[in-house]
Amino acid sequence: MPALNDVLAALDALWPPERAEQWDAVGTVCGDPDAEVTRVLFAVDPVQEVADEAVDLGADLLITHHPLYLRGTTTVAASTFKGRVVHTLIKHDIALHVAHTNADTADPGVSDALAGALDLRIVGPLVPDATDPEGRRGLGRICELDHPETLREFAERAAARLPATAQGVRAAGDPDRTVRRVAVSGGSGDSLFDAVRAAGVDAFLTADLRHHPSSEAREHSDLALLDAAHWATEWPWTEQAAAQLDEISDRHDWGLRTHVSRIVTDPWTAHAAAPPPPARLPDLVSVPTRLPWSPTLNAAPADQIRLLDVQALDVRLSQLAHKRKTLPEHAEIETLNADHTQLRDLLIAAQTEESDTAREQTKAEQDVEQVRQRAARDQKRLDSGAVTSPKDLENLQHEIASLAKRQGDLEDVVLEVMERRESVQERVAELTERVESLQSKIADATARRDAAAEGIDAEIATVTKEREVIAGTIPADLLTLYDKLREQQGGIGAARLYQRSCDGCRQELAITELNEVRSAAPDTVVRCENCRRILVRTPESGL
Ligand SMILES: [Zn+2]
Ligand SMILES: [Zn+2]
Which ligand is nearest to the CA of 506? Predict the structure, then answer.
């Protein structure tokens, strides 16, 4: 688990504090730099209800878009509502960090998330940051619609896509006018009219549009205006920011659990619409106090169930790969090879000894032959009668006798060498037989191993093909998430929700989590709070 300091360094890299406006108050409000961080909650407003949610969640870090103390303070007494928030957080070891105007102008920033929520194609920043050579950072975004809509359609879509609030989306302009190019800016936007006009857009979607700037903008040109709740235009950023921190956590293997607050902290809670003329926008009838499960991913329930089939095949594939790697023949061949090496060394030593002994025998036989020839020569001289001097005769007879003794000794040597050589030859024969027998055992085990591997390979090919066919019917984004999780989570990326427990980590779901899963739409891709795997609902889920 990372220390708060590590997480803060990562956050500062995403939203450098020095890029905040001069008047802003961003950064860490409270928190111990050395404390460990496991759970992180993202929210727009650091209000008491959100602080309580952080406590309930067991969060260690709360990251909000709006500052708690924008203008400084001289007291954090719990008798003030902000002081109460500080007390709640510190009492439960929860750090508070603010990314405000530094997140507005970041790439990606608050308006990118807003444009993303509305499916808009981003062209560039509305007020570019002069210090960004790439021209991507800055306040607001200029966007294009893939398919032009009427102002009415665009406003209705914005109201449906942004989190529901009492206000909904107000619009100014002819409801039937065409909207192709729009400027968007999360949060208060009525100081940006000059830039909006310069951008030549058809409409401007933002929040907190006051009467006079709006009225003047409408008199100035035919620019259509859309005014949403401040909170609703900034809330999409919390999901984007959580995803950014998730990505960093994955990269560093931090194992952070990020959460996005779904408490509606828009201060407006009711809306009394005037009787609507037909061309007007639809009214909001009810405002939930909590957003429904806000998915990052949707997939048809049938696709989710099929993902379990893919998971089963992937498990089979890893079992087969394991089986192939741990075939008993592998160990058998290894042992046989070791024995073979040892015996072959002994055989080579014996063969060397045998050839040495053969040379020794030849040499001894030559010695015998030399002595025999000398003795024969002497005998011939003696027999010829040429030697007559008694002294010479005695010497010759003496030499013949001593040569005879010498030949006898040398013949004993030959016999001894021959005996040794015979025993070495026996050893060579025995070792040769053993080496050959081992070689045939190795050949046999190798053949058995290859046959077993071939069988497994054939099964792997069949299962791989089957997996390809089923995976091909699953939406790409769901499959990508699954593959990523499978890699991170020891081969299991998707698990059944069975009898209220996650089949991946075997943890029973907490009642709050269970309620969230119950209220999630069937096509919402739900994740296990504990192991982050995709949780697939089935009739046996016990919901
Ligand atoms: Zn704001
Ligand atoms: Zn789990």
Answer: 2
Segment 273-320, tens digit of pLDDT = 765 544 444 554 444 444 433 346 889 999 999 999 999 999 999 999
CA of 267 to the centre of ligand 2 (A): 36
Ligand 1 centroid, distance to 131 Cα (angstroms): 23
The class of domain 327-465 in CATH terms is mainly alpha
Q: Yes or no: is domain 4-100 CATH 3.40.1390.30? A: yes
Q: Distance (Å, rounded) from C-alpha 193 to C-alpha 518?
A: 44
User: Does residue 104 have a known ligand-binding role?
Assistant: yes
Query: DSSP states of 387-421 as a string?
Result: ---HHHHHHHHHHHHHHHHHHHHHHHHHHHHHHHH
Q: Write down how long the chain is.
A: 543
| 307 CA distance to ligand 1 middle (Å) | 40
C-alpha to C-alpha distances, 434 to 204, 441, 479, nearest whole angstrom: 90, 11, 56
Distance in angstroms (rounded) separating the CA atoms of residues 530 and 504? 10
Give the number of the ligand closest to the Cα of residue 495.
2
**What is the Å distance from ligand 2's center to 259 Cα?**
16
Q: What is the dihedral of CA 389, 390, 392, 398, to 10 degrees?
A: 160
Architecture of the structural domain at 110-228: 3-Layer(aba) Sandwich (3.40)
Distance 505 CA to ligand 2 centre (A): 4
Q: Indicate whether this complex's ipTM tops 0.90.
A: no
- Cβ count within 10 A of residue 463: 17
193 C-alpha to center of ligand 1: Å? Answer: 17
